[in-house]
Amino acid sequence: xxxxxxxxxxxxxxxxxxxxxxxxxxxxxxxxxxxxxxxxxxxxxxxxxxxxxxxxxxxxxxxxxxxxxxxxxxxxxxxxxxxxxxxxxxxxxxxxxxxxxxxxxxxxxxxxxxxxxxxxxxxxxxxxxxxxxxxxxxxxxxxxxxxxxxxxxxxxxxxxxxxxxxxxxxxxxxxxxxxxxxxxxxxxxxxxxxxxxxxxxxxxxxxxxxxxxxxxxxxxxxxxxxxxxxxxxxxxxxxxxxxxxxxxxxxxxxxxxxxxxxxxxxxxxxxxxxxxxxxxxxxxxxxxxxxxxxxxxxxxxxxxxxxxxxxxxxxxxxxxxxxxxxxxxxxxxxxxxxxxxxxxxxxxxxxxxxxxxxxxxxxxxxxxxxxxxxxxxxxxxxxxxxxxxxxxxxxxxxxxxxxxxxxxxxxxxxxxxxxxxxxxxxxxxxx
Length: 431
What we know:
single chain; BirA Bifunctional Protein, domain 2; Rossmann fold; 3 domains; 5-stranded mixed sheet; 15 helices; elongated
């Protein structure tokens, strides 16, 4: 493979697209903050055992999809998801000793070696939240509310919330026995992976993508019939809270999620707009994970949202484009050496005050500069030559409306331009 070709299952996010990513990430950060979540940043790789213990040794992620490297005598793995590393960071840095619940969010890249397809890459990006410390169903509802708010305010259509409870270790033991009894007569028909899972973790059979295993499992027992009183009460209270919040949902007893750490509540936001990979957000409770990783018994929950899938869905639905920052609000077109010096000085002052300003660094002609300014989407242009310098005044042109304004090239230029920029932005918002 050519060294100039990117690895299979990865994508280059070019300048034209990165503005959209920045707008999405900015929206996610603001929305998370409004809901009481603060950002956490964790390493790209962790000790491999963190994922084998936390995510689960019987999961596809651990068995087939992790990128692992041995450095001297240590084994590290690129993070396949964000929860395990975030919980490790909480424990190592003592966050659980502070006021509870702890609410954090992250935007990070994850890595899984699987077959690339629409909305599924080997390196992908994820927005996720984790809440640690509350066992109340109202906490589940709050986390789901945040995910729902993001999806709703972005204008994503044709999305359904599916919820389920997969119980606790106590009631799940009885359910596992029922699943083994159901699948045992069909063991030889199951795929090789499911044959191994039947003894170790029979719930994983319900998550198998094999058409044969799916057909065999279509009449398998459902977990909701095996919930203990505590888990059943928790699930009923969650549904009541979602009703109070006005969030529509459907109960889907087949949702088990792909990671072993989930308990009680699991949920997915599903769309039909991106083909087979229709889950754009998934999450739930993992009340035993913190203790499993060596911390105190602490209930916790969260979700992960794939950003590539989210953007793909928005594009397929032709949703209104995300608000992007102006690549250039003022392009100053200098004609001559003295004008170029003045333009550089003015651009520096504008940038220092927070305005996106550019000027020529290619030695282009007037016509070529104007063509370039139009290509990069400059909102305003201003031509400066010897005459303008001598008169101390130049013409500011609004590239969208064609309006022209005479501007003094004095020490108050930046303040005057900002007045115009603010008025222009307010007019755009009203429109």
